Amino acid sequence: MHWYGVLAALGFYAGLLTAARRARSVGMAPEVIWNMGTWLVIGALLGARIWYVVSYWKEDFAARPLLETLMIHRGGLVFYGGLIGAFATSYIYVRRNGLDAWQMADLMAPSVALGHGIGRIGCLMHGCCYGMACELPWAVHFPVDHETKGAGVHPTQIYEAGLNLLLSLALSRLFQFRKFHGQVFAVYLCSYALLRSFVEAFRGDYPIRYANGLLTPAHLISIGIFSVGALLFLVLRNRLPSPVAR
Description:
By secondary structure, the chain is mainly alpha-helical. It has one domain. It has 8 helices and 2 strands, in the order αααααββααα. α5 packs parallel to α7 and α7 packs antiparallel against α8. The protein starts with a helix and ends in a 7-residue tail after the last helix.
């Protein structure tokens, strides 16, 4: 299996494992998390791939056979699409099983950051999501047949992996002291949007940019994600009771 797939699978497993352990602290059976795992994987893969295909349809897929849109082993996944897809399918699972949606979101948020951090190492191994050219001591060099032609570029995959791992630790700590259901998830959305916007400033793989080249498509999505997170925080803080079990 390609390293891209190996690291993605490892990220999923690490995320589910840590969420299952966290579930015990609120009196939830770990099996609930593991059973939801299939829904998460399906939603994340479909959402991430669909978003990528739609985003790069003219550049990469308009003239190709439709079957090639399914070849995710070659790369081509967008995290924001995966996040939305995973949220949609897991919400179906939560509703069908009579679970608290916002409590489940809090349980999963630190694990999403952890799994994403691990998955970004797969991006480094695959050579996607690379950064702009730079001559810094920590610049990375891909093979000469890569789009970067062997020039030194910002290791944006490592930037995002490290920041996601730090975010996972911070959210895990916040989970222990949360004041209302949905707090951790809302903070995750806002924090990741800021984190991603920072890393995007160094990305060099986008064929399309906005605002005279200052903004990437992910920058624009991050604005929306941050707004949703901030709105959720304000609304849920006033509507939902404080957690009883920590």
